[in-house]
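[recover] target loaded
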């Protein structure tokens, strides 16, 4: 088991025609959240967003590409939340509307309280094939977990279960976990598809077991992913796939930013320079400022 988490475990349940992903994040969250001073509800939601992005990235596996998850809002204190997955690395940030206050009642952590009206947007860029897929669902649900569930119910062809959780320990460290279980297409395992051929007892069985996972179990850094999978699905044969280690993936660097700036015409770069002839570039992901003479 990797120290402190940041692991993603794939698994299959062949006898029930199901597959899934289980993710646990730890140090990656401390790096991402530690670069900012987010209010607790925003930090918690960004932790869940990173866990969901890891699950989706592992599910869709964009070859030489990137999966990006965005939540855009209007009317709440959070304008934008972004996370992306590339080469088993994660990064993310939230943009706040400083003119709006956070709710202080029990609804403070709901999507409506944080974003107002908005959309959850999933973008899959396949660099090798130059293809792009985008799925959009309204942020009408109370939680990110429910919004993700709505996305799969409206945008995907396979019955899917999503569970997310995040927790901050007394020492301030964050842990997040997520579970995604999906019925396999009939062509993959020969089973009936729930939404096409009526209730599928195999999927109903898997959904009940997977849905029994608790937030404490998902976010418990001392509970190994393999132990949790056995706890949930010990009635069936669970085949665990090779584990992937996740890292923080902010890709900003002087060289990268310089290459980007060189793509602009000289006239536009001249407008970017300050009185000292320096271009200032801020990275929202890692909260760093880069000063370049170019």
């Amino acid at each position: 088991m990797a120290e402190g988490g940041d692991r993603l475990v794939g698994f299959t349940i062949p006898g029930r025609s199901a597959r899934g992903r289980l993710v646990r994040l730890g140090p990656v969250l401390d790096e991402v959240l530690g670069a900012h001073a987010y209010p607790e509800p925003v930090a918690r939601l960004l932790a869940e967003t990173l866990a969901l992005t890891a699950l989706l990235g592992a599910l869709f596996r964009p070859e030489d590409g990137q999966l990006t998850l965005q939540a855009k809002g209007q009317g709440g204190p959070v304008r934008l939340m972004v996370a992306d997955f590339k080469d088993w690395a994660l990064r993310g940030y939230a943009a706040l509307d400083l003119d709006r206050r956070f709710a202080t009642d029990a609804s403070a952590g709901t999507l409506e309280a944080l974003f107002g009206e908005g959309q959850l947007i999933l973008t899959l860029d396949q660099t090798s094939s130059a293809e792009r897929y985008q799925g959009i669902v309204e942020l009408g649900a109370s939680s990110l977990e429910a919004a993700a569930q709505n996305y799969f119910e409206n945008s995907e062809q396979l019955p899917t279960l999503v569970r997310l959780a995040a927790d901050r320990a007394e020492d301030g460290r964050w842990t997040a976990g997520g579970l995604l279980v999906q019925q396999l297409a009939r062509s993959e395992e020969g089973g009936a598809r729930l939404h096409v051929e009526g209730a599928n007892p195999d999927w109903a069985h898997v959904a009940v077991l997977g849905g029994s996972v608790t937030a404490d179990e998902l976010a418990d850094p001392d509970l190994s992913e393999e132990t949790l999978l056995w706890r949930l699905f010990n009635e069936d044969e669970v085949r665990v796939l090779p584990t992937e280690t996740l890292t923080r993936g902010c890709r900003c660097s002087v060289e990268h930013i310089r290459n980007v700036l060189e793509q602009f015409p000289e006239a536009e770069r001249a407008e970017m320079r300050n009185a000292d002839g320096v271009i200032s570039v801020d990275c929202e992901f890692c909260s760093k400022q880069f000063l370049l003479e170019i």
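[recover] notes: The chain is about 30% helix and 35% strand.
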